[in-house]
Every structure is written in C-alpha cells, then in structure tokens.
Amino acid sequence: MTTADRDPWLLTPGPLTTTDETKRAMLHDWGSRDATFIETNARVRRSLLKIANAEDTHVCVPVQGSGTFAVEATLGTVIPKDGKALVLINGAYGQRMVKILDYTGRAHATYETAEDTPPDPAHLEKMLADDAAITHVLAVHCETTSGILNPIAEIAEVCAKQGKSLIIDAMSAFGAIELDAKKVTFDAVMASSNKCLEGVPGMGFALIRKSVLEGCKGNAHSLSLDLYDQWTAMEKNAQWRFTPPTHVIVAFDAAIRQFFDAGGVAGRFKRYTENRDILIAGMRKLGFETLLPDSLQAPIIITFKMPEDPNFDFEVFYDRLKDQGYIIYPGKLTVAPSFRIGCIGALGAAEINGALAVIESTLKDMNVQNGRPAAA
Ligand SMILES: *Cc1c(COP(=O)(O)O)cnc(C)c1O
User: Candidates 150, 171, 177, 194: which one to mutate for ligand 1, based on the most atoms within 8 Å of Cβ?
Assistant: First the structure.
C-alpha cells in the first residue's frame, strides 16, 4: 500500500479516515434555504438525539466550527454568569475547559488526577458536599490525551444525588461508547462531526436538556456561540442563523446513515474494540508497552511509551510510517514520553494489521531491537 494509490490511513484522534460514500455526498452545492438541505439538517439533529436515546428529554443544537467551538458554546450558554463549575481533569481536554471558563469569566474549581488515573467518585462527592457554590460538574468521557475511559455513569450518579448539573465532553466517545440519557443523567453532552461518527470536520453539536436550555437566555458571552439563540432561531425557521457548513452536514448525514446500517453504537463499539485489541496485541509482541492498564483503556486511541532503544527516533519512525500510508500521532502526556495510535475512523482489522506489518519492518530498518520502554 503506498500513498500513490490512496490517501494515508489516519490513525489519529481526528480528523479521521472517512468512507468514499461520505466523501461523495459532498459533490453538490446547496443553498442554505434549499428544502433538501433543510430536511437533511433536521434529520441529522434527530439522529444525534436518537444515538443518545435523548429524543424525549434533550434538544440538538449544532454549531459551526471544530469540537472546541461546541464545548465553548455549551459552557458559555448553559453555565450562568453567577454559576460555578467543578472541572474533572486528567488530560488536555479537561484543562481546555478550564481555559474556556477563564475566557468566559465563570468561577470554577478543579479536581485533577494524573493522566493515567480516573477521578474517584467518592472524592467528587466530598468536594461537592464541601462547596455548595458549585452548580455544574464538567467531565470528559474518553480523555483523548491518554485514551483513558472515565467513569461517567458513576460521576453522573454523584451529580444527580447532589443536585448538580453535569456537562460531558464526549467528543471522542460519542457514537462508539454508549451514553444513554435514560440511564445516565446529564444536562448537556458535546461532540463533533469528525470523530466516532466518521463525518468530515466542520461542525460540533450539543445535546442539551430542553428544560435547562429554555432557561439559558442571556447567559452567553458571545453571539456566534450562543446556543440558546442558535436553537430558538433554528426552531423558528429550520435554518441556521449564519452560513451553515452545508457540505459538512450533508456528509454527516451520509456518515450517520452508514453508522445506523452498521449497527449503531453497538456496531461501532465492536469494530473499534477489535481494532484496539489487534493493535495492542501486535504492539506488545514487538515489545511496546501501553501507558494504561487494559481495564482503563477505551477503544479510541492508545498511548504507547517511547521505546528505550537509542536507535529509535520518533520523527524518523513517524515519517517512514507516513511514507508507507499510515499516519500516527505524537504523545501529549506530561507523565512520560509517548506516542499515540488511534483505532477510530473508517478502518478495520485489515488496516490495523497493515499498520502493524509496516511498524515491524520499520523497526527493523531503523535497527531498533524492540519497542520496550525504559523501566519506570
Ligand atoms: C477532539 C476533542 C475535542 C475537540 O477538539 P477540536 O480539535 O476542537 O475538534 C474536545 N474534547 C475531546 C475529548 C476531544 O477528543
């Protein structure tokens, strides 16, 4: 497989490899008031609610931009100016929510654990009991920095018990790891078009509890990121307030149709889990070690510790894999030098096995004995 034949496979946290069917859906132009486009937009919004089993309780508000735009829009809209958030942090995306709260001027506290350690629900409960000013809890479902799966059901239980509003950044998990609004109580969840639903990048969305959003008028710090205004305007005439990302939405519609055809959340979870298991088993055979124990490892992206062999140079390794059709990703950890390989996107066992074969031959070419990291 060479890049002359096709685009390289993206083994990254996103944007990801999309199917030809999804890409082909974009080969047209649509006006923003076009009836077909308006129906497509409505179908996408309904489908996103359905994926979270939230049609009866929540509304879907899309927003132009990358996933971070949706996070910033949701925090700014849902948390009132006199609210206070508790942010659960074990990676860069938890940190980013703190930065957003700084920009938007919302009071906040943090509960930070190491990048390989999920938050302890009992400690969360104690923090909430100790600080009555906290109104909202912000959590990341799969923290893509390491690939760790955070215990979202337990976190939600504590929040419900303490009467706190839960906002979930499920960007890298939505569509692949079950989040059922009938089982897990949350007021808002954010995700984007270009992760596990395998659309193209360009829009984010939030599913927000309708009774909560109805009370959010005037909260937002920003006109373009005001999801109350975005929602009420879209309910009125079914159109976006400002230029819609038409091609992104039509491709997203095609991607979601394929998602349901392939078994929805259960189907995607199964394929990504197989990808993860093949990848980890193959990498361990080459001597590599994962950062996380298997019990904490989500089927989204895997962090591998940097090999100790002095002949291993990540930049060279990365470039050689890229030349052979596979894009991996640098690490983002503070605890240890590492790199990441994603297992999401429109790819399966054949592509993961292809990547493993290229990794093995590249190590040989680089004269690297094996992938074993330095002893901790
Ligand atoms: C990808 C991602 C985001 C959003 O990142 P963008 O680059 O803005 O799309 C936010 N949170 C998590 C957990 C993510 O994985």
Answer: 171
